[in-house]
Amino acid sequence: MGVRMTDLLGGLDALRYEPVAKRIRVRLAGEPVADTCEALLVWEPRRIVPTYAVPKAAISGHLLPVGAESYTDDDPGPILDPTVPFGAHTCPGTPFDVIAGEETAAAAAFAPDDADLAGHVILEFDAFEWREEDEAIVSHPRDPFKRIDVLRSSRHVRIELDGRVLAESSRPLLLFETMLPVRYYLPREDVTVALDPSDTVTYCAYKGRASYVSLPDGARDVAWVYHEPLHDARAGTRPDLLLRRTRRRHRRRRAASATRHPLERLTARFRHRVIGHAVWR
Q1: CA-CA distance, 120 to 7, in Å (whole number)?
Q2: pLDDT at 15
């Protein structure tokens, strides 16, 4: 009997890791912390995005044990998305302060009590500056078992919000992302409403920095803009907009959701919550 790949890759309960061949460099406020070609991607139990672990021997700063072993007694939920703090560890291990020059990142390193990860420490992504080879990375390390594809399409897409038509197009770009719903990006010329800049900014490891826009007469952050999309998200030069799908598509999505893998449903809800309702690249 065939096995769906999602069933093989979707387990969240274990401490998972994968070696990477990239050169990983880490800094703290400009001070070097680590430089290695022997990093690991690590997912603590129930974490849905990875972070990097580096060999202790590659740490050029200092690791200072925080004290008692760290383990989360309170249940943070079935999955730990990136909004859950790094300190909510779901496996036994020892936390460390990281000291580089005059700077200290408190409890920003964690050494799991696991034989396969012996000699490595996981570093909190948000506490440091990161480069893969010579390229800066944002939000979190990219997952080698996930990808995005942006494809030109001639599908007819009509976008409404509370019965009001916001856009309609037959020349969208479609964003396909592993275990997430399809996103429909539309040319700005096919948007029929005015949009004002918002102060909201978020980051995606695959697409880059998103700046949001709002409807002048009400709804906030109905779309977001990737002014300088990362290379994975570059499918053309035109500015495109992805807004809330029509009610018909919402009904179809709900009907189809019963057949999804549980992880697919969970990550879809999380990504909707973080990203919002729409995208304008």
Answers
A1: 28
A2: 94
- Assess contact for 9 and 145: CB atoms under 8 A: yes
Could you tell me the maximum CA-CA distance found in the chain, to the nearest angstrom? 60
Asked if residue 82 lies in contact with residue 139, where contact means CB atoms within 8 angstroms, the answer is yes
Cα–chain center distance at 79 = 14
Whether this model's pTM surpasses 0.90? no
Tens digits of per-residue pLDDT, 136-183?
999 999 999 988 999 999 999 998 888 888 889 999 989 899 888 898
Task: Please name the amino acid found at residue 48.
Answer: I
* 257 phi/psi in degrees, rounded to 5: -65, -25
Q: In what order do the strands lie in the sheet with 208-214?
A: 196-204, 208-214, 223-225
**φ, ψ at 179 (rounded to 5°):** 65, 25
CA-to-CA distance for 181 and 170, rounded, in angstroms?
A: 19
DSSP state, 262? H
Rounded to whole angstroms, the Cα distance separating 122 from 50 reads: 10
At residue 40, what is the residue type? L
